[in-house]
# Entry
Amino acid sequence: MTGKWIDISQPLHNGIAEWPGDTPFHYEVKFLKADTGSVNIGQMTTSMHTGTHIDAPFHYDNDGLKVDELPIDIYIGKARVIDVTGLESVGHSDLEQIDFGGAERILLKTLSRPDADVFPETYTFLRRDIGPLLKERGVRLLGIDTPSVDPELSKTLDAHHSLHDNGVLILENIVLASVEPGDYELIALPLPIKGGDGSPVRAVVRKWEG
Ligand SMILES: Nc1ccccc1C(=O)C[C@H](N)C(=O)O
Ligand SMILES: [Zn+2]
Ligand SMILES: [Zn+2]
# Structure
Protein backbone atom coordinates (compact mmCIF):
# COMPACT_ATOMS: atom_id res chain seq x y z
CA MET A 1 0.00 0.00 0.00
CA THR A 2 1.39 3.35 -1.01
CA GLY A 3 0.40 6.46 0.96
CA LYS A 4 -2.00 9.16 -0.11
CA TRP A 5 -0.73 12.06 -2.16
CA ILE A 6 -0.41 15.23 -0.06
CA ASP A 7 -0.70 18.54 -1.86
CA ILE A 8 2.14 20.82 -0.70
CA SER A 9 1.22 23.67 -3.09
CA GLN A 10 -0.15 27.07 -2.10
CA PRO A 11 -3.61 27.40 -3.68
CA LEU A 12 -3.43 30.12 -6.36
CA HIS A 13 -6.18 32.69 -5.94
CA ASN A 14 -6.73 36.44 -6.18
CA GLY A 15 -5.35 37.59 -2.85
CA ILE A 16 -2.31 35.31 -2.58
CA ALA A 17 0.71 37.43 -1.62
CA GLU A 18 3.16 38.32 -4.38
CA TRP A 19 6.79 39.29 -3.76
CA PRO A 20 6.64 42.99 -2.69
CA GLY A 21 6.39 45.13 -5.83
CA ASP A 22 5.94 42.16 -8.18
CA THR A 23 2.89 41.41 -10.39
CA PRO A 24 -0.15 40.36 -8.32
CA PHE A 25 -1.76 37.03 -9.17
CA HIS A 26 -5.07 37.46 -10.99
CA TYR A 27 -7.46 34.92 -12.45
CA GLU A 28 -10.79 35.60 -14.02
CA VAL A 29 -13.21 34.00 -16.40
CA LYS A 30 -12.67 36.28 -19.37
CA PHE A 31 -15.29 34.82 -21.67
CA LEU A 32 -18.50 33.45 -20.15
CA LYS A 33 -20.27 30.38 -21.44
CA ALA A 34 -23.38 32.56 -21.69
CA ASP A 35 -21.52 34.69 -24.25
CA THR A 36 -19.46 32.12 -26.13
CA GLY A 37 -22.37 29.70 -26.30
CA SER A 38 -20.11 26.75 -25.45
CA VAL A 39 -17.40 27.34 -22.85
CA ASN A 40 -16.03 29.41 -19.97
CA ILE A 41 -12.49 30.63 -20.73
CA GLY A 42 -10.20 31.86 -17.97
CA GLN A 43 -7.24 34.17 -18.07
CA MET A 44 -4.43 34.42 -15.56
CA THR A 45 -1.80 37.05 -14.84
CA THR A 46 1.06 36.14 -12.53
CA SER A 47 4.68 36.53 -11.63
CA MET A 48 6.57 33.27 -12.01
CA HIS A 49 7.58 33.69 -8.34
CA THR A 50 4.14 33.74 -6.76
CA GLY A 51 2.85 30.65 -5.01
CA THR A 52 4.68 27.35 -5.10
CA HIS A 53 7.26 27.66 -7.88
CA ILE A 54 10.69 26.73 -9.08
CA ASP A 55 13.46 29.17 -9.98
CA ALA A 56 15.29 28.63 -13.25
CA PRO A 57 18.94 29.70 -12.90
CA PHE A 58 18.17 32.47 -15.44
CA HIS A 59 16.17 34.16 -12.62
CA TYR A 60 19.42 35.16 -10.90
CA ASP A 61 22.05 34.56 -13.63
CA ASN A 62 21.76 36.01 -17.15
CA ASP A 63 23.68 33.02 -18.49
CA GLY A 64 21.69 30.46 -16.47
CA LEU A 65 19.38 27.80 -17.88
CA LYS A 66 15.79 28.74 -18.69
CA VAL A 67 12.90 26.74 -17.29
CA ASP A 68 12.30 24.73 -20.48
CA GLU A 69 15.97 23.71 -20.50
CA LEU A 70 15.97 22.12 -17.03
CA PRO A 71 16.08 18.33 -16.65
CA ILE A 72 12.65 17.14 -15.46
CA ASP A 73 14.03 14.22 -13.45
CA ILE A 74 15.12 16.74 -10.80
CA TYR A 75 11.49 17.38 -9.96
CA ILE A 76 10.34 13.76 -9.62
CA GLY A 77 11.71 11.32 -7.05
CA LYS A 78 12.71 10.62 -3.48
CA ALA A 79 12.82 13.63 -1.16
CA ARG A 80 13.60 13.89 2.55
CA VAL A 81 11.61 16.38 4.64
CA ILE A 82 13.89 17.92 7.29
CA ASP A 83 12.64 19.89 10.30
CA VAL A 84 14.54 23.17 10.79
CA THR A 85 11.78 25.02 12.63
CA GLY A 86 12.87 27.77 14.99
CA LEU A 87 16.08 28.66 13.18
CA GLU A 88 16.68 32.21 11.98
CA SER A 89 18.85 30.86 9.18
CA VAL A 90 20.10 27.47 8.00
CA GLY A 91 23.66 26.70 6.95
CA HIS A 92 26.41 24.09 7.04
CA SER A 93 26.56 23.89 10.84
CA ASP A 94 22.81 23.26 11.14
CA LEU A 95 22.74 20.44 8.59
CA GLU A 96 26.09 18.69 8.92
CA GLN A 97 24.85 16.37 11.71
CA ILE A 98 21.65 15.56 9.84
CA ASP A 99 21.32 12.33 7.85
CA PHE A 100 19.89 12.98 4.38
CA GLY A 101 19.55 9.25 3.73
CA GLY A 102 21.09 9.66 0.30
CA ALA A 103 18.08 11.68 -0.93
CA GLU A 104 18.82 13.84 -3.96
CA ARG A 105 16.04 16.17 -2.89
CA ILE A 106 15.57 17.80 0.48
CA LEU A 107 12.57 19.80 1.64
CA LEU A 108 13.22 22.16 4.55
CA LYS A 109 10.35 22.66 6.97
CA THR A 110 10.81 26.07 8.61
CA LEU A 111 7.15 26.94 9.33
CA SER A 112 8.32 30.58 9.11
CA ARG A 113 5.78 31.54 6.43
CA PRO A 114 2.44 30.78 8.10
CA ASP A 115 0.04 32.49 5.67
CA ALA A 116 0.31 32.41 1.86
CA ASP A 117 -1.84 35.56 1.66
CA VAL A 118 0.55 37.67 3.74
CA PHE A 119 4.16 38.29 2.71
CA PRO A 120 6.13 37.49 5.89
CA GLU A 121 8.05 40.25 7.66
CA THR A 122 10.86 37.78 8.28
CA TYR A 123 11.40 34.15 7.41
CA THR A 124 14.13 31.54 7.75
CA PHE A 125 16.79 32.01 5.06
CA LEU A 126 19.79 29.94 3.98
CA ARG A 127 23.43 30.89 4.53
CA ARG A 128 26.00 30.90 1.75
CA ASP A 129 27.93 27.91 3.14
CA ILE A 130 25.01 25.56 2.43
CA GLY A 131 25.80 24.80 -1.23
CA PRO A 132 29.05 22.82 -0.81
CA LEU A 133 27.53 20.61 1.92
CA LEU A 134 24.52 19.77 -0.25
CA LYS A 135 26.76 18.99 -3.21
CA GLU A 136 28.91 16.72 -1.04
CA ARG A 137 25.73 14.84 -0.02
CA GLY A 138 24.55 14.49 -3.62
CA VAL A 139 21.55 16.83 -3.27
CA ARG A 140 20.21 18.27 -6.56
CA LEU A 141 17.01 19.97 -5.42
CA LEU A 142 16.28 22.06 -2.36
CA GLY A 143 12.66 22.90 -1.52
CA ILE A 144 11.63 25.33 1.20
CA ASP A 145 8.38 26.67 2.68
CA THR A 146 9.42 30.33 2.35
CA PRO A 147 9.20 32.89 -0.51
CA SER A 148 12.95 32.77 -1.07
CA VAL A 149 16.13 31.03 0.08
CA ASP A 150 17.63 34.51 0.66
CA PRO A 151 16.37 37.32 2.92
CA GLU A 152 13.85 39.67 1.30
CA LEU A 153 16.24 42.61 1.02
CA SER A 154 19.27 40.71 -0.30
CA LYS A 155 20.64 41.98 -3.60
CA THR A 156 23.54 39.56 -3.76
CA LEU A 157 21.33 36.45 -3.35
CA ASP A 158 24.16 34.53 -1.70
CA ALA A 159 22.07 31.42 -1.03
CA HIS A 160 20.65 31.28 -4.58
CA HIS A 161 24.20 31.50 -5.97
CA SER A 162 25.67 29.07 -3.44
CA LEU A 163 23.06 26.49 -4.44
CA HIS A 164 23.48 27.22 -8.15
CA ASP A 165 27.28 27.02 -7.98
CA ASN A 166 26.89 23.57 -6.45
CA GLY A 167 24.34 22.22 -8.90
CA VAL A 168 21.31 22.50 -6.61
CA LEU A 169 18.00 23.70 -8.06
CA ILE A 170 15.42 25.61 -6.01
CA LEU A 171 11.74 25.06 -5.17
CA GLU A 172 10.07 27.81 -3.11
CA ASN A 173 6.82 28.45 -1.23
CA ILE A 174 5.94 24.82 -0.57
CA VAL A 175 3.52 24.08 2.30
CA LEU A 176 4.84 21.62 4.88
CA ALA A 177 2.61 22.36 7.88
CA SER A 178 0.97 18.92 7.71
CA VAL A 179 4.02 16.96 6.50
CA GLU A 180 6.10 15.12 9.11
CA PRO A 181 9.87 14.76 8.65
CA GLY A 182 10.79 11.62 6.71
CA ASP A 183 11.10 10.23 3.22
CA TYR A 184 8.61 10.97 0.47
CA GLU A 185 8.16 10.70 -3.23
CA LEU A 186 7.97 14.22 -4.69
CA ILE A 187 6.45 15.49 -7.93
CA ALA A 188 6.80 19.24 -8.63
CA LEU A 189 6.97 19.71 -12.38
CA PRO A 190 7.48 23.14 -13.94
CA LEU A 191 5.63 24.18 -17.08
CA PRO A 192 7.74 24.17 -20.27
CA ILE A 193 7.69 27.97 -20.62
CA LYS A 194 10.20 28.81 -23.34
CA GLY A 195 12.82 31.20 -22.02
CA GLY A 196 11.15 31.30 -18.60
CA ASP A 197 12.88 32.45 -15.41
CA GLY A 198 10.77 30.09 -13.33
CA SER A 199 7.39 28.41 -13.22
CA PRO A 200 4.50 27.72 -10.91
CA VAL A 201 4.36 24.03 -9.98
CA ARG A 202 1.84 21.66 -8.47
CA ALA A 203 3.92 20.07 -5.75
CA VAL A 204 2.77 16.80 -4.16
CA VAL A 205 4.39 14.23 -1.89
CA ARG A 206 3.51 10.78 -0.63
CA LYS A 207 5.25 8.68 1.97
CA TRP A 208 8.13 6.70 0.51
CA GLU A 209 7.58 2.97 0.71
CA GLY A 210 10.54 0.64 0.48
N1 LIG B 1 9.82 38.42 -7.49
C1 LIG B 1 10.86 39.20 -7.14
C2 LIG B 1 10.83 40.55 -7.42
C3 LIG B 1 11.89 41.35 -7.09
C4 LIG B 1 12.97 40.80 -6.47
C5 LIG B 1 13.03 39.47 -6.17
C6 LIG B 1 11.97 38.65 -6.48
C7 LIG B 1 12.00 37.22 -6.20
O1 LIG B 1 11.14 36.51 -6.60
C8 LIG B 1 13.06 36.69 -5.38
C9 LIG B 1 12.90 35.34 -4.80
N2 LIG B 1 14.21 34.87 -4.58
C10 LIG B 1 12.29 34.28 -5.66
O2 LIG B 1 12.99 33.66 -6.42
O3 LIG B 1 11.12 33.96 -5.53
ZN1 LIG C 1 11.45 32.32 -7.08
ZN1 LIG D 1 14.33 32.20 -5.49
Remarks:
- Residues 20 and 119 are 8 Å apart (CA to CA).
